[in-house]
Amino acid sequence: MNDSMSTNSMLVQLPLKINLRNDASFSTFVAEQELIAQTLSSLQQPDKPQYAGCYYFFGPDGVGKTHLLQAACRFYSLKQMQSVFFPLMDKGLPLIPDVLTGLEVTDLVCLDGVEAIIGHEAWEKSLASLIAKSKVQGHRVLLAGQMPIADWPMVTDALRSEVFSIMPIPLTPIKDKDSLVLALQRHALNRGFDVSIEVVNFIIKRFSLDLQELLAVLEVLEQASLAEKRRLTLPFVKDVLAR
After folding, report:
1. Which are the contacts of 45, defined by CB distance < 8 A and separation ≥ 6?
2. How would DSSP label each residue in 154-217?
3. Sheet holding 83-87, edge to edge
4. How far apart are the C-alpha atoms of 124 and 129, rounded to whole Å?
5. pLDDT tens string 165-218
6. Class of domain 177-242
7. Contact (CB, 8 A) for 133 and 104
8. 101-142: per-residue pLDDT in tens?
9. Do residues 144 and 114 lie in contact, with contact meaning Cβ atoms separated by under 8 Å?
10. If you ran DSSP here, which 8-state letter would residue 239 be given?
11. What is the CATH number of domain 3-170?
12. Which of 5, 42, 52, 128 has its CB 3.0 to 4.6 Å from that of 138, i.e. a possible disulfide?
């Protein structure tokens, strides 16, 4: 990797590693669909060349796309392997198409908000090259976005040819109550505290079936528990949420 590439990588990686969410781990993600469970299993076997290639997680906001990409980066880091995470929709970062050049030597490249670069010739060519070369190297590229690949407004033959090697993984909101309970309990454990099924059921009944909203409530309860040095019992939770 040449000096200019190293400089470009430092510019984008330094703030991104700081901003990896603490709760972004595979253990806190609840997969209802078998395809997702199989994909997560393959991502946690980084030394298996048969799982190399490109995966595209897509779906509406709040289904865990960014969570999965950051969880993968965290997992690879713990395995002492190289990973990089680029939020392509972030206008404040110095991202140019050349930033993808040479990244095929990286064990894992995660590109969030990939729609931001689709439709731009230079970006599409860089992306197509990265996907093709990474697979040859036995490495992985994870993409995330909202729209199906069939709806991408592609302008280059290079990317049109390469999309056939991308594995699309649709993500949908969690609808099953038991899965929501499990997700909240896993997030609580990841934060270092326990929350009973009784408490979780009360939160769900009181608020909604939207995981992101429930996680926000969980954060409020965690802060109250730490501030008052009290366990998250049902009476305490009811008191906090009534304030």
Report:
1. 51
2. ---HHHHHHGGGEEEEE------HHHHHHHHHHHHHHHT----HHHHHHHHHHS-S-HHHHHHH
3. 83-87, 108-112, 140-145, 53-58, 166-170
4. 9
5. 999 999 988 877 888 888 888 888 877 788 888 988 898 888 888 888 888 888
6. mainly alpha
7. yes
8. 999 999 999 999 999 999 999 999 999 999 999 999 999 999
9. yes
10. H
11. 3.40.50.300
12. 52
Judged by phi (left if over 0) then psi (alpha if -120 to 50, else beta), residue 80 lies in left
CA pair distance 171, 146, nearest whole angstrom:
9
Is residue 45 helix, strand or coil? coil
CA nearest 9: which of 123, 105, 77? 105
- Distances in Å between the Cα of 87 and the Cα atoms of 56, 65, 82, 117, 231 are 14, 11, 17, 11, 37
Structure tokens at 147: 């729209």
Alpha-carbon distance of 69 to 85, in angstroms, equals 7
Residue 136: Cβ-neighbour burial (10 angstroms; 0-12, 13-18, 19+): exposed
Domain map of the chain by residue range? 3-170, 177-242
Q: 81 and 55 in contact (C-beta within 8 Å)? A: no
Q: Tokens 């680029």 identify what position?
A: 86
- In the numeric block, the tokens 């109250």 are attached to 224
**What is the rounded CA–CA span in Å between residue 125 and residue 159?**
6
Q: Which two tokens stand for residue 236?
A: 């305490």
- Locate tokens 């649709």: which residue? 170
What's the sign of the alpha-carbon dihedral 124, 129, 131, 132? positive
